[in-house]
UniProtKB/TrEMBL annotation:
Residues 148-213 form the HTH luxR-type domain. It comes from Streptomyces coeruleoprunus. It holds the Pfam family GerE. CDD domains: LuxR_C_like, REC_NarL-like. SUPFAM superfamilies: C-terminal effector domain of the bipartite response regulators, CheY-like. Residues 3-121 form the Response regulatory domain. This is Response regulator. The modification 4-aspartylphosphate is found at residue 54.
Amino acid sequence: MIRVLLVDDQPLLRGAFRALLDGEDDIEVVAEAADGAQGVALAREHLPDVALVDVQMPVVDGIEATRRIAADPALAGVHVVILTNYGFDEYVFDALRAGAAGFLVKDIVPEDFLHAVRVAARGDALLAPSITRRLIDRYVAQPPGTGTHAGLEGLTNREREAVALVAQGLSNDRIADRMVISPTTAKTHVNRAMTKLHARDRAQLVILAYESGLVTPRTS
């Protein structure tokens, strides 16, 4: 059973999300919070698999709540998915840097919403290629990274290659095709790179790849 925490200051939206999630046999909403501070406290109390967190909330906003959850070793198994009304904006970018596994726009269709929750719960959250492109665009105007992030020197050549492909928005299956290896081996390379770079998930791996200079965005 996938355990979900809802963190949103709008009761009507929380009710709609709860009704949708509780209608699934494999998902249950374990708690609801109206602000980020309460959300962090409930995350510690209930240890959900997925925390759906709104960006803009009173008391503590979604970015700070995400940062607190990501920084707490006891909450390492909690995958934060940001909820936003605006698509990919600066708030969402900051939340990804803070440790979020990904984000959902609130007008997403129900089927995609449920699929995203299940993907996040598995810990295999993927950034869609369109989102990855926006991350890349965010870095194009910045100076290249130094490549000195702790752990980079410990990556094998194949792990570096896998990270570069993750940074292009490729799934494990597509990485396997490009590297001419099995999907299981591709997943192993990605997971080992995440461990060495202390990345919580693929979203963090993409950000680390560009910030460190391991991957350089093309301007054309």
